[in-house]
Specification:
This protein has about 160 residues and is mainly α. Helices cover about 60% and strands about 10% of the residues. Helix 1 crosses helix 8, helix 2 crosses helix 4 and helix 3 packs across helix 4.
């Protein structure tokens, strides 16, 4: 959350000369409501089912840069579909997350005690992110352009 996946994803797509897509945007367009509204109205399990369908559909028909929501990798089938694909994990620490997002109420998983919940989410997810990542790119203290360049360099090194 707030790591810059949309901004960096767009920059990567531009630099690579490919299309950009964000599954969160697809979900909002299809559902006609925000991610936060889906969480409030239907709960996290219902959102994760919607997210899984969106990710699987997009992975099947999109060949450019794809930004996934932070919880998409919780699903084992999704992780299996990502196996063998170039995946960049944009990482940051909690202090950077606070600076970027304020850990505000618009983030449904962080509604109460945001710093503690962010840390718990990252402790539960980090190993999953790292397990599917071709490259891990820290974003702390970097501009989107610097993160994009680092991602390109990491991907080049991993492909050599």
């Amino acid at each position: 959350m707030g790591v810059g996946k949309s901004t960096v994803g767009r920059l990567l797509a531009e630099r690579l000369g490919v299309r950009y897509r964000d599954t969160d945007d697809d979900i909002v367009a299809e559902q006609g409501r925000t991610i936060a509204e889906i969480f409030v109205d239907e709960g996290e399990p219902a959102f994760r089912a919607i997210e899984k369908r969106a990710v699987h559909k997009t992975l099947a028909d999109h060949d450019g840069v794809l930004a996934l929501g932070g919880g998409a990798i919780l699903d084992a089938d999704t992780r299996a579909l990502l196996d063998g694909k170039r995946v960049v994990y944009l990482s940051m620490d909690v202090e950077e997350a606070v600076k970027r997002t304020g850990l505000n109420a618009a983030r449904p998983l962080l509604a109460a005690n945001p710093r503690k919940q962010w840390r718990e989410l990252m402790e539960a997810r980090r190993h999953l992110y790292e397990s599917i990542a071709t490259a891990v790119v820290p974003t702390d203290g970097r501009t989107p352009e610097e993160v994009t360049q680092a991602a390109l360099e990491e991907m080049e090194l991993k492909e050599a």
